[in-house]
## 1
Amino acid sequence: MGATEIWNAMDVARGARVSEIHSSSLTIDHSLLLPDMTPRIIELCKDLFKKWSKLDDSRFSVETVSGGITNLLLKVSVEEEKGKLELVTVRLYGPNTEYVINRERELQAIKYLSNAGFGAKLLGVFGNGMVQSFINARTLISSDMRKPKLAAEIAKQLHKFHEVEIPGSKEPQLWNDISRFFEKASVLEFDDSEKQRMYNMVSFKEVHDEIFELKELTDLLNAPVVFAHNDLLSGNLMFNDEEEKLYFIDFEYGSYNYRGFDIGNHFNEYAGFDCDYSLYPNKDEQYHFFRHYLQPEKPNEASEKDLETLYIESNTYMLASHLYWALWGLIQAKMSPIDFDYLGYFFLRYNEFKRQKEKHLLLAQSYLSGVGAG
């Protein structure tokens, strides 16, 4: 994808001819405060869903569900005729996120993932977002993910998620995406002199060499390729406590990828929004997760060999996860209007990569020499 070529949700919806998906050409200004945004959201809902087009505006209420560093999620409640209440979720894409997210890939995958019971149903698309069915559940916080019962449930769900077949190329996208991010990240210029000074501290030759070395090693692992979520942080996990039902949401980074990347990336997210990497799961916690991933019905029957293989895969690809999001942070520092220290985030992730690198590369090399000998 070229630097100027971006994905347009409307074109994708038309091109894919997704059945039963309503579309509108309206866009919503992401920067508006909720009271100013509400009339636009109501107008959008009326434009998308003809059954609501004649309803009085007073029958609509809009509230914020969550605002991440890339998306804004809104809950819309609509009082239909005869007092029936309908709920939908409106997701506004973060400004300029098309530079790092392939919307075509996302929208095509949602249909199949939804049919397999994952996430919310896609109801409509518009200029800079989508409307989905409402999920009645709470968003997890990072400390939830390490609770043994929830960790086991996440692992079981991830096993099922990785079994979903999405039509099209099954080529793993990790190194394609990292390469694309690297190309964009290495030619940025900032108007802000302090940002430019920080950016100039990045050695792109060093980063390039690190990517090359890690790719060479991970290629030797021959890790299984699955349709991966690639962004399984707490904000993309929801749980209904009464029904004890877990939901995966937001598949915008989803692609065919290495299973170890999806799991290693998830383990990195134990650090939470504070990026406290001392919270990265220890070997016992990881093995608890792996058992429920490998053998969802009989976790204690997972073989030692399979557990070790997954441990090596996940912790080697964990390093790739740091490189991926570090480069993503550089692009966001230039493209995103959101007030977040993306440049600082690059250094945080890259430094953690360097801190963890030697230990986990040695583990992988030792494992590979043992496999070769075995």
## 2
Amino acid sequence: MAPVGKADRKAALDIASWMFNVVTSVAIIMANKALMATYGFSFATTLTGLHFVTTTLMTVVLRWLGYVQNTYLPIAELLKFVLFANLSIVGMNVSLMWNSVGFYQIAKLCMIPVSCLLEVILDKIRYSRDTKLSILIVLTGVAVCTVTDVSVNAKGLIAAIIAVWSTSLQQYYVHYLQRKYSLGSFNLLGHTAPVQAGSLLLLGPFVDYWLTAKRVDAFDYSPTTVFLILLSCTIAVGTNLSQFICIGRFTAVSFQVLGHMKTILVLIMGFIFFGKEGLNLHVVLGMLLAVMGMVWYGNASAKPGGKERRSYSFTSDKSQKHGALSDSGEPDDKV
């Protein structure tokens, strides 16, 4: 009976972690859309820096409560992660500005095959035929839903390539660092959030001025925009934490595949709250196809041989398998 109870508990925590990420991700998209589209606050990089400031404050509180312990992460690994993470943020913003919405969506879809490639090369992961086909179905369904006009130029293509690779590497490193250094999600966030907050607040205003020709300090702040900024920062705490929890519990590829459920939910909520313009048969069919692919991926990757490691990446696996890895997951179980 004990193994069954443990499996049920893990499944419940997996579902709770994923729902936490879905809810916070959709909520922050809606808050940022109101802030940027309605009130013209177009300083996305600086706003992300503020997100990590509030996340850093959260880690301070969690350390005081005992959820964040003193753990070790080499400075070289920390700087490498922050480089990938900041390049991802800037790259996605630049890609969205320089490319059409259709090509931007195609670039986002490319993160799944890039993440698969990283796992195959670096972690020796092997995917079954059903797992590969399910990923293809998800990509096809989301493409049908979201890809409209497609136009590309040289600088837009470069920005998209940087955005795709840096985002994929950042998400891979979340899982990699948690496994290699036996870090829970709280502990890893405690290492990375302060550095990201400082670097983005330092560079953000300059990047935003380069992208928008507007100064963040010259923006006309009203009580409503200040409230929306504070709301966005508050939600971002949950978004950042839930991303680390989900990638730690699953993998970067699973996070990307299931992450497209958020795309579907955002589309549905947009049709509900902002009118049904753009809603047609092929969009509905694309949504259904994507959801079917996600369900298939969940079943296929969970089966024996669906997604397995040919040889474990770290030599200390035997010593960590029953001790350190379970310890690193312990803080996440308290969420």
